[in-house]
Amino acid sequence: xxxxxxxxxxxDVDRADVVFADDGGVSYEIKYPVFSEExxxxxxEALRKMESIISLxxxxxxxxxTSLKARLEKYxxxxxxxxxxxxxxxxxxxxxxxxxxLGHGMTKQKAAAxxxxxxxxxKEVVVNSEKRRGGRYDRIVVAAKIEIDKVPYVxxxxxxxxxxxxxLYAHDVWAISEEEMTSSQADTPxxxxxxxxxxxxxITTILRNAFLSIPK
Length: 216
Hints:
216 residues, five-stranded mixed β-sheet
């Protein structure tokens, strides 16, 4: 399926920053890249040097008389509930995605960042990749710098992938302070035992570690 056919497959999205890529004639595709520690390190360095990929005013998905869940379902439907990445293949933006993401708590900034999820996935900067439940599935965190109401953040999107599906699982944002923006080196915080527990996501910890662990 060509890029143009992919775009026609979905309702028109009037956003120049969203790419509908060729998929080599496959209607649905999951790719399984493996990321080495060195690649993760390079991606973390790229994240620190990155310019913001999108500037949000925080009102893109603001209250319109419907629930946030309903607004997200409508928004993701604009993309055909799917974003295609040349690195990952098809990534589902499903009802289950919304349910899981909302279930991990919500802040005003995190709600605003939902709008940037397609952009972050397409940026393809992987800062964490782990196998869970004995290798039954992978969780991958893709990160990028964004702005919300002129405040800089690192935003992370966690994808869940197994041998049958790949979809958004959760996302979060971490605010970058002025000190962290100008520092060329910082200590990486260690994880507590609870943070190591696979029942806890701690995407913000992953983002902070990735951003601050860059050598001078």
